[in-house]
Write a structure and sequence with these properties.
Length: about 70
């Protein structure tokens, strides 16, 4: 994604997770958006390893369950 593409998107986080993100943003003197973007860039390779919901797996669908 280029640096000039600034589309708006609403994201919803559990209250406790949002509070942690806000606390970290304040600690680093950064925006919430910056924190989430950096977190995505760091975690995306690991996230890409997760099976998609359309892949056949032996495990039941875990969507909606807390980690």
């Amino acid at each position: 994604m280029t640096g000039s593409d600034k589309r708006k998107q609403s994201l919803y986080f559990p209250e406790d997770m949002l509070q942690e993100i806000q606390t970290e943003a304040a600690r680093q003197d950064r925006s919430l958006s910056w924190i989430v973007q950096k977190a995505w860039k760091i975690a995306r390779k690991d996230i890409m390893k997760f099976p998609s919901v359309t892949e056949d797996t032996d495990e039941p669908d875990a969507r909606g369950k807390d980690d």
